[in-house]
């Protein structure tokens, strides 16, 4: 048995369900209790159980949401998860693809997580013509952003505040990685619609 300091999606849904059952049995109803939605702050990750393959395809029909980092707006997960063909199997913070369609610019943090070896968010969906700004935290050593199909690549940098921008003009799924940290799961994806 492992010691977990955070709740994963299943824990939240189980606790929410147990809470609803308790209120129902007591004859109490509360319109706010148990909306069925989970909010995961940007930069946080769920610790999925070992039997989860990490593809984000749960059985829930409910909309999942995540804060986009500015504390003002929630970003939902996409309705139809792209097939990343195992790309995220070893990525700790992948919890589905966040829907940023309708935005002109989207930020992805480089060097996120406790060890500075993650992109956050790990997977995003955007419209064609959207610019993604990758911004370095300065954590985890030198990083880059390199497309697995060699369509774009930043320089290898470790400086906090450094940015790299790429505009995605063509539809498709673009996977990218940090060259020195790929084996440690520092990978991401942009799905362009």
Brief sketch in words of this structure:
Residues 31-75 are annotated as: Disordered. The chain has 193 residues and is mainly beta.
Notes on the protein architecture:
- This protein is mainly β and 193 residues long.
- It has a domain at 74-192: Cupredoxins -  blue copper proteins (Immunoglobulin-like).
- It is built from 1 helix and 12 strands, in the order αββββββββββββ.
- The strands form 3 sheets. The chain has a 5-stranded mixed beta sheet with strand order 4-7-12-11-9, with no helix packed on it.
- 33% of the residues are buried.
Supply database-style keywords.
single chain; 193 residues; mainly beta; Immunoglobulin-like; four-stranded mixed beta sheet; 1 helix; 12 strands; globular; disordered N terminus; electron transfer activity; metal-binding; Halocyanin domain-containing protein; electron transport; membrane
List the helices and strands and how they pair.
Elements (H helix, E strand, L loop, with lengths): L8 H17 L13 E2 L24 E3 L6 E3 L21 E2 L5 E8 L5 E3 L2 E4 L3 E7 L9 E2 L15 E6 L3 E6 L9 E6 L1
Parallel strand pairs: 1-2, 4-7, 5-8, 7-12
Antiparallel strand pairs: 2-3, 5-6, 8-10, 9-11, 11-12
Cofactor: Cu(2+)
Subcellular location: Membrane
Main location: membrane
The average pLDDT score comes to: 77
**Secondary-structure element order, as H and E?**
HEEEEEEEEEEEE
CATH architecture of the domain at 74-192: Sandwich
Total strand segments: 12
Secondary structural class: mainly beta
Q: Helicity, in percent? A: under 10%
């Amino acid at each position: 048995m492992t010691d977990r300091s955070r709740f994963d999606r299943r824990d939240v849904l189980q606790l929410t369900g147990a809470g609803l059952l308790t209120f129902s049995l007591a004859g109490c109803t509360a319109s706010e209790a148990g909306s069925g939605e989970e909010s995961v702050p940007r930069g946080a990750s769920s610790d999925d159980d070992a039997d989860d393959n990490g593809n984000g395809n749960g059985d829930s029909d409910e909309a999942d949401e995540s804060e986009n980092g500015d504390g003002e707006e929630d970003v939902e997960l996409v309705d139809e998860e792209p097939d990343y063909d195992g790309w995220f199997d070893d990525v700790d913070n992948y919890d589905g693809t966040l829907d940023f369609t309708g935005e002109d610019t989207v930020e992805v943090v480089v060097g996120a997580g406790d060890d500075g070896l993650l992109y956050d968010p790990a997977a995003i969906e955007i419209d064609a013509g959207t610019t993604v700004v990758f911004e370095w935290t300065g954590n985890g050593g030198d990083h880059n952003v390199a497309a697995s199909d060699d369509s774009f690549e930043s320089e290898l940098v470790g400086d906090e505040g450094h940015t790299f921008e790429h505009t995605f003009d063509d539809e498709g799924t673009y996977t990218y990685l940090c060259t020195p940290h790929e084996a440690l799961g520092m990978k991401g994806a942009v799905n362009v619609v």
